[in-house]
Amino acid sequence: MNTVKKEASLLVQGYEVVIGFETHAQLATKSKIFSRAPIAFGAEPNTQACAVDLALPGTLPVMNREAVAHAIRLGLALGSHIAEHSVFARKNYFYPDLPKGYQISQFEIPVVQGGEVSFFLGEEKKTVRLVRAHLEEDAGKSLHEDFVGQSGIDLNRAGTPLLEIVTEPDMRSSAEAVAYAKELHKIVTWIGICDGNMQEGSFRCDANVSVRKPGEPLGTRREIKNLNSFKFMQQAIDYEVRWQIEQIGDGHSIQQATVLFDPDTGETRAMRTKEDAADYRYFPDPDLPPLVIAQEWVEEVKATMPELPRQMAERFVREYTLPEYDSTTLTQSPAMAAYFEIAAKASGQAKMASNWIMGEVSRRLNAEDREIENAPVSAEQLAALLQRIADGTVSNNAAKQVFELMWSESAPRGPVVHVASGDAVGQGAVVSGVAQIDAIIEAKGLKQMNDSGALEAIIDEVMAANTPMVEQFRAGKDKAFNALVGMVMKASKGKANPQQVNDVLRQKLQ
Amino acid sequence: MNDLHRLGVADLAAAIAEKKTSSVEVAEALLARAKQHDHLGAFLAFNEEQTLAQAKAADARIAAGGRGPLLGVPLAHKDIFVTRGFPSTAGSKMLAGYQSPFDATVVSKLAAAGAVTLGKLNCDEFAMGGSNENSAYGVVRNPWDVERVPGGSSGGSAVAVAARLVPATTGTDTGGSIRQPASFCGITGIKPTYGRCSRYGMIAFASSLDQAGPMAHSAADCATLLSVMAGPDIDRDSTSLDHPAEDYTRLLGQPREGATAAQPLKGLRIGLPKEFFGEGCAPDVIAAVRAALDQYEKLGATLVDISLPRTELAIPVYYIIAPAEASSNLSRFDGVKFGHRAAQYDDLTDMYKKSRSEGFGPEVQRRIMIGTYVLSHGYYDAYYLKAQQIRRLIAQDFQNAFEQCDVIAGPVAPTVPWKIGEKSDDPVANYLADIYTLPGSLAGLPGMSVPAGFGEGGLPVGLQLIGNHFKEAELLQAADAFQRATDWHKKSPEGY
Amino acid sequence: MSLTLSDIGRIANLARLALSEAQSERMRTQLNGFFDIVEQMNAVDTTGVEPLAHPTAVIDHVSLRLRPDVVSEPNNREANQRSAPVVERGLFLVPKVIE
Which residues make Cβ contacts (< 8 Å) with residue B98, sequence separation at least 6? Predict the structure, then answer.
């Protein structure tokens, strides 16, 4: 079976890589999960930590409704079960950035249960199963730099709402792990529950990595903490896999550990383990009755959900008969999907639109590191150009020149633009996308030659000038035909319609 | 006006409203008296400036025609409630001098009603204890016999009222900490249904058990205070019950439905749990309680024998659940954000350990140890979970009992107050003394202590009344009817 | 069951308490004294009994109250840090945290 072949092809020095993810997504709320303090990033130390966040004596938690709504949104997006009854528990441990000496989290009964994330790894469709996603509060930060022999504690982040999203150990390569993380990142930002800012720690990934000989039970895992960029994620996992295989190769066994990735050295190193990390003494938080989510509420939230990337991709396959690969690529962001739909509808050339967006448009965007939201060539303009290719006015190559011109000359955005180029159009006159393109085609003389009289003249010249080649063809050398076509195209300065050249030339050679 | 200190809340409020005296005059007189009786150890802190400012404000409101049952009346708060302007210590060295940036909800509600805060009151450290010997700030002495304990943990609150230093106080009750000291000091106190008063600003001991309540001369005064203290705290406490505030004085002096003025409690069925009257209870206590029950029969009530079969189990169940919650609640005292930090330490862990061992007293450390152990890996199911299951059975026992009766009555404690130091080396003996108050606490039920006479050595004995959830008004009605027919609650110790 | 001194040591470390040898020995005796009265719990059959975490749940169906997502806590750093042992530039200082 070819999936087996695929798995086998992934082995690293005969070892199978097994990866599971725990992702902490900071929820896009205004106030904290259990207090009314703001959660804005980068404020002065401890100015956004109120009495509750500091665990001052006598303070108590009161749950933020919006954080629960975000959990429901994630559950709906991932096809999970949303528990009608879930419980907050205390995870007890001492750490200076943990003001209460316990973290309020969910343990035995999480709010989001099961579900899955599907994505493409190259052309291959992958699905990673989720174990759970639970609500919890973020901790503060320890700053080690500024003080000799001491750490400074900033509790502004303490109490920021988090969803911890936990997968099954379903990933088999660093590439698949990164693809999963990117897909999850796309989903949480798409549905608006997380700003996805990895530099600011809004989306933090921990990877559980282990290796084993195929068919053997799971190996001992090491957890790589706080991978805050997709690049580091891949580097860290690759390093960790090599390290583990080496260890085993040298006859050492892997010890369960938490490790950190150092981008400078490109290596992972074990953290100093909290001796009693094993014993968190979880118990239901007596300050918080059970969280009850009525089905009506879930329905309410469902009604406000946007079309999800996966559903949209499937629709693109249906409505525009695109390959799954195209439709997945085009649903990277709501903006790109919208750009495609406008271009496809306006031009009636869905596949062509897809090719151009994944090709020319993406190439220019990447080169200039722009978002498609402010592409200088609007979806309407692209549509107009595609129409001109479709109706044979311009060749694909010529169209690319037009596109380049529009991109570099056009004022960014908008179906309607000022064109100052060429005498053919009135100075600075406002014209429609199509008119503008026709103008450029005119001005730059990129129109395809469809006049057969002119074409025949050129062909006659070429044949006259290359009698030996004509002979060769007649003697049965087919290669010669292509050479002649090439010379005709050249003589027409690329304006001739290649198909037409073929037909006329064949006639004349009979 | 003389003998101001003898007046209860209602009389004092009336005297102030009728301008026979002023809130300032009362505050000054009681501040002086409290300091004069410093040896009792009831008060931990005063703030004269703030107290007199509050009193002036109250007098101004009265001059402007303002009226209210607590307007201008001085109160004092157990030092478990955080307050601005006074240190809030929970009776612990850990919080020596701690200044809270906010007031407890109960404190601000009473202040808004015009009550004047006279000071903060001594208590067992973090409300853990039944004798007030666990305070880092010294023992509190029982004014009926200064060699004896006042009970606890709200010992300072009970003594301040019994010695007539202040007409009423706030207390907190986790396993009996209002009822037992009220009984030991011959005053009236009520612990309402769990969740009836906001816990916001109450320094947490055991979150699923802690409740605030008033302590005063009479059931009527308690009703007046509780009416102000109780009510939902939607913004601040997720466990405060979504139940509208009530006027707990509404049934006072009213005969029960279908009853007469002569027999106002006709039709009231009082359940007597046989487990509360066994040989574990001292004869002098039983005698006083029985006499009180006879009085209740005269008032028209009928006595019903009932059973609370798991009464004894309440001790291990409570002393697993409460320490478990406490061990977690007290983890925030780590010397980082507030509270005591050791002077010398090698590293972070050493700082934690030294700061906490220096800051917490022996009983608190004992309970942290018990709680940590019963939650730890491999023991959770056998201890904590099992205790929470038996807790439900205990709560159900009460619901079964309330099929047969309206109120449950019995002793508050097995004995009259013991000598200071007598039990301080035997924690388990202290735990056993809580046997009659723990079951109601575990079930979250309202309970009272009503002065019922005197036992050995002329020491007070309290009658405990336990009602079903939200039946505070009925409890207070029954207690008030008794106090209209007796004068135990009017007795004060020699020289006070 | 009876707690040993090493049990006491493990629990004290979990609870971040420093106990001298004498204190540990005393603690051991007192805790074992307490766990003697806990024994009686084993005799109770609790199969199928739901634990009671919130006492009023026996009569009332309790569920978590949710608040609107509104910011209403102003910066109150000065008052909040008034009783802090060591503060510098608004940060709480502790012995170096090694990761």
Answer: A57, B87, B88, B89, B338, B339, C83
